Amino acid sequence: MAAAAWALTVSFAVLAFSWRSSRFRGDTAGRPLPAAITTAIDSSWLRWAIRVAGLAFTAYVAWAALAGEDLAVNPTLGVFYVYLWVGMVPVSLLFGDVWPLISPLRTVQLLIARAARTDPARGVRDYPSWLGYWPAAVGLFAFVWTELVDPDAASVSTVVTWCLVYAAVQLVGSSIFGSQWFARADPFEVYFGLVARLSPWGRRRDGRVVLRNPLDGLDTVVVDRGLVAVVAVLLGSTAFDSFSASTYWLTRTARPDALDPTLRDTLVLLGFILLIAVTFSIAAVLTAGVDAARRRALPGLLIHSLMPIVVGYVFAHYLTLLVEYGQTTLVQLTDPLTRGDDFLGMADLSVSYALSSHPSLLATLKVAFIIVGHILGVVAAHDRAVRLLPPQHAVTGQLAMLIVMVGYTIGGLLLLFST
Length: 419
Prior knowledge:
The protein is mainly alpha-helical. It has one domain (2-416). It has helices at 2-18, 35-42, 44-67, 75-95, 99-102, 104-116, 134-148, 156-177, 180-185, 187-196, 214-218, 227-244, 247-253, 261-285, 292-302, 307-333, 359-388, 399-416, and strands spanning 31-32, 201-203, 209-211. The relative contact order is 0.14.
């Protein structure tokens, strides 16, 4: 923890003296790849192949969910909590913003629009600007509450109910506002889209596919209402997940409590999310040399710098789950109805517990993910600050943010190793 705190402090000191002007250029940066690659990526056959694969996989899992038994070995649980929530993070980092193609609901909305001969991008009215990302923030909270608080989270029927409500909201919203609804209101599209900004692949403003610095991609995050809430839910829920598994929490919740456990956990989860949102917002506005309007906008303009931290925590906290339980889910998918079938030919796959059997390596990886995520966050925040703040306040205006990030680092490591 001491080393992590010093790593952030030294990084900030180096940036303060050597990084005096903004270097990230967002959607104008990047080295163009050959035009043939852009053409192939934009080809309708590739895009429809991905869409059909997404629909087919969704139908396969839906078959397991509806026709299979409501047991822990049903692959629906692993697909929902591991492949979707965790697995799409490395996929988005490696391949960019692919969720809009994989999303079965986007494909269904597109097919409906094609059948009705209407523009899928337009609905009966424009998306209200005052809504911003708030629907996505609410959807993300609904997911993390189901995963971390709901006493029936491990029930297939709970997952089915959640997915049906999610699908209904997204399809109704897109029918009213068009496909622009997904970009602001689909919790998964917003989450994975933010992660994809850290991919080395992206698009320049002119449409060319480019290879770029991931922090240039992060600089392209579109700021809107509710963005701070989205990131706070992502970071706060991961912190709560670690806290709820800590010895401190388990010892105290094992005793009789007058407060209903579900209500108690809901309040604590909200507390972690509010803690992230409030501390970050206060740190962002504690600067001088800007007018009141810019001061109010600073939390939204700087919140993108927490996304490397979010990704670092995801890998630190869920790496074992993804690698090891992900293999178990693959075995379960070959027998979706738990009756001895082997549709995918993987029934004899042996699950490797390489990470769990090497705790020192796992601990080192966890610390590295957190420290690297925080250092990248400091770099992103510094570059945006020197662009937004007057030169005489560009460094001093970031001191509160540095203190908060050091606090996040130490708190994250404490929670991570408190079980």
